[in-house]
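Reader question, answered in our methods column.
A reader sent in the components of a multi-part assembly and asked whether the whole thing could be modeled at once rather than chain by chain. We filled in our standard form and ran it. Here is what they sent:
COMPLEX SIZE: two components
ENTRIES:
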Amino acid sequence: METTEAKNIIRVLIAKVGLDGHDRGVKIVARCLRDAGMDVIYTGLHRTPEEVVHAAVQEDVDVLGVSILSGAHMTIFPKIIELLRQNQADDIILVGGGVIPDDDVAELRKLGVAEILLQDTPPQTVADTIRDLVTQRAPR
Amino acid sequence: MLFVIKDIRTIVIPSTELVEPVLARNPRAIARLITRAESGDAECRPALEALYAHTGRAQVVGMTGVAGSGKSTLLDMLTVAARKTGRTVAVVAVDPSSPYSGGSILGDRIRMNQLSGDPDVFIRSMATRGALGGLARATHDAVDLLDAAGFDMVFIETVGVGQDEVDVVRAAHTIIVVSAPGLGDDIQAIKAGLLEIADVHVVSKCDRSDAAKTIKELRSMLTLDVDLNRKRAWPIPVLATSSEEAQGVQELLETIDRHRESLETTGEIVQRRRSIAETRVLQTAEAFLRGEFAKHRDGRVSALVERVMAREIDPHGAAQELIAGLQTEN
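And here is the structure of the entire assembly that came back:
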């Protein structure tokens, strides 16, 4: 077997934050990023913003993907952005996913969420978007 | 802090400048250097070399067992127990890479969340990236880095193994083999491989009714040890744990510590360290040769395969021809 001595495999942490038990979508996203050749760290359900940022730092991920289907996105994303700053980790690209109203999408982008992938995003687009975001970022 | 950490967010910091922050246990520096070690980039070698001089203090514990046996759950509880004794803990948790895409889903954190947020616990997930022995190639480097960073205990959690993926035995000082109840019979217990490498056996999920049978079979397997030359300074224990009932974890931690003491008193720790060092030297050399060979064979394989297909040459002869002239000096 060829060994995948791959340099620079993209690392993504996928998290479910808060009181939100809907993880079918996030599992599909994890699976499609795996199939796109990325290392996907999945934290499981009901994480706090603190736990997620802490894990993202230790895992040295390129992208932190947070899925929120509970409607709490306007509380949780600002909190995560703040914690990334506090931990000097705001070079980690924050991507949101879920069912989020258009007005909030615009607001979240302004706050610093790099991309919001809504519920009807095709899997290939998810993978392409992540790859593009990482490619555009400065090397590290 | 005594040194200046350049802003890791905005510039590419040379690995050698991460050495001091790693020694001061800066989490971003540790994490970044592990990533570079994983990528196989030669740029990080001098930094890892500098850090190696600071290794040798951590108690390195390997945890292995079949997929679903409860390694991550047990490790979560064990970490909590170790933290209560005041020790700092690092975990390197390995999961498999896809043989098709090279990607992976690293799910060990799902069950390791009790201490997420504790700055004295560092958990790193790692994909095998094609390595077959139950660890990733960079696992050793990550363990060294965490050792140098001053973590008192470093746990290595292997992928869910079959019978033969036992590389962890040459990566850690104490090996815990986790078995879940209800898999196989007493002949499984005397086969070679996984069960042989345990310093401590754990039967997880012992709240289940068939756990007693598994414990009995493992104990009886251990009494069949007829090798008279091998006087056992350390009789291998079989412990029962249950996460449902939070049982057996304290005893497991104490057993790990007693094993460590036993290694020190008998002097076997030196042999184990030597064995780990030897494995690392050989594996690294082999990886280097494999890389050289890959370069050397480049573009010459298909022609040889055609000649084999045409029966002009046999596979062995083709292999000889392929490696002819392979230079290994630099």
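What stands out: Chain A has one domain: 4-132. The CA atoms of residues 25 and 80 of chain A lie 21 Å apart.
Send us your own complexes using the same form.
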